Amino acid sequence: MTENKMQLEEQVLTISSEIPKRIQSALKNAEESKQFLNQFLEQETHLFSSINSHLLTAQPWMEDLGAMINQIEEIERHLAYLKWISQIEELSDNIQQYLMTNNVPEAASTLVYMAELDIKLQESSCTHLLAFMRATVKFWHKILKDKLTSDFEEILAQLHWPFITPPQSQTVGLSRPASGPEIYSNLETLFCQLLKLQTSDELLTEPKQLPEKYCLPASPSVILPIQIMLTPLQKRFRYHFRGNRQTNVISKPEWYLAQVLMWIGNHTQFLDEKIQPILDKVGPSVNARLEFSRGLMMLVLEKLAADIPCLLYDDNLFCHLVDEVLLFERELHSVYGYPGTFANCMHILSEETCFQRWLTVERKFALQKMDSMLSSEAAWISQYKDITDVDEMKVPDCAETFMTLLLVITDRYKNLPTASRKLQFLELQKDLVDDFRIRLTQVMKEETRASLGFRYCAILNAVNYISTVLADWADNVFFLQLQQAALEVFAESNTLSKLQLGQLASMESSVFDDMINLLERLKHDMLTRQVDHVFREVKEAAKLYKKERWLSLPSQAEQAVMSLSTSACPLLLTLRDRSLQLEQQLCFSLFKIFWQMLVEKLDVYIYQEIILANHFNEGGAAQLQFDMTRNLFPLFSHYCKRPENYFKHVKEACIVLNLNVGSALLLKDVLQSASGQPSATAALNEVGIYKLAQQDVEILLNLRTNWPNTGK
């Protein structure tokens, strides 16, 4: 402790001698820092006063210099303005010179450059300069366009354009006249020069637009040379299908639609062979045939937009128009390759007023068709009843006609431009399915008393067929796309729970699920009614069999040949007759459900009402097993390989009742000694019992009377 104390004292002395040195060093540093700071402050004050005096001196110079810079900038702006005017005038003079020397290609190229300058100037606020530029472009564009158009029309006239007759009867156009190469060379030259005017033409010409309510997709103007080629056809169209001409009949839309298709067909070969190569050389990816079709399509759209309001409330005329438009669209897309993304007739039919009318008319005519199909004499007869291969579903005529009607409706609306319109048609289809289901239910209720009759079975086949077809449609790409669109709509409107949205998104459910569920429920109810009806007959026929004297029947050894119990005949005959009847009237899948439901009830009935309700001697047990395994089970062997597997209660009860006495005694002892143990289950499995519980087997063993007399 003393040594420790001495060490501590030495440490204290050392530290106490060092601390004053450190404090002195810190104070010295602080003094030096203070001196530096004072020096900096003095320098800052001096600099501040110098800068202020310099700024005061420079102020007048700054003001003079600013004024001069402003003047220079203004002069530069004026100079730039004058340069623009000079450039415009220079370009204008160049075009004039080129035209005077008949150098049209250079004039056209210069006009293109001028039009591009006009586009660049659009952001400028110099309105007068813009107006001057636009006026100059317009002036030269008109002169060049008129000159080129007249030359181009002259060449087209030499080629006998437009071709009014079909290609087979065209004498010129594609055949080569004597001066053919020269004509086509001139055609190409003029076509290319007109193409150069495209930029200025788009600047100056407002494209014809239908009202916004038709929601036509945005598209560039038809290229200028094709516009000129379309002019004579547009004149013909307006002459024949506007005003008071005999060809302008509101009830005959097919006239002008067929005319447009014929024109496209007549000119396709010329456009593909003569015009398309020119466009390919120039560079821009333009399809001559589609440009031509697009120009003619605008005539059709204008005509439709004008005609539809006049026949909107005449159901027959409106329906006829829609039919003709759909046929026109189909041919236009399939034969002439017109893309669905371009403006087409479906955009006009999608306009709100017209579309709602279309839905109403579609519903009205569909309901009329449903009335007629259900009231026809052949409504419940299958068209293919004599052709076994085709008639697997045994579909009545009314159900097949109805599904064909739905298929036709799908075909009519599948090319609509927007998903929201398609979804409205899908709702109409679902309403029609529901309406048809209700009508089937009403007819079914009238037939309830004859639930095994032909018409009742036909209704059941119809329900099954519609449900099956809808389930197939749910996997169709078109309806899967609609499901995705519906998912987006439901997500925005919060009309479905998160679970339902998730099921739709993961494809667990489909757009037809609600309908399919209702149809499946109806199918199950109808099958249950049939099963109950047959089961009541079976129970009636089994009354004698229930009263059979199972306790006193002769053993197998006492009979020469085992034969079917006489009292079982009515039961088996009823089963056989009804099974055959329904096998002929129901389709395979329905009949399979029917017999399996019936067998399930029959198995429980025989087990509970016949086996558990009686005692059996050796002969009785053997007779029961013979009746079941050699007569009842084989009735259903036509429908499955191992019918006994559907009669598990009966099959296993027969096993227990027919065990030889030794095995039965052994089993009884095991069950009593190992109740509920795995060994008891193993013992049951060993003799072929898997369905019956241990208690049931004990009850069945107690129903046996052929036990040895052991004094117990």
Automatic annotation (TrEMBL):
GO cellular component, one term: Dsl1/NZR complex
InterPro entries (alphabetical): EXOC6PINT-1/Sec15/Tip20_C_dom2, RINT1_Tip20
Signal sequence range: none
GO biological process, one term: regulation of ER to Golgi vesicle-mediated transport
UniProt xrefs under PANTHER family: RAD50-INTERACTING PROTEIN 1 (PTHR13520:SF0), RAD50-INTERACTING PROTEIN 1 RINT-1 (PTHR13520)
Family: Belongs to the RINT1 family.
Designated name of the protein: RAD50-interacting protein 1
Designated gene of the protein: RINT1
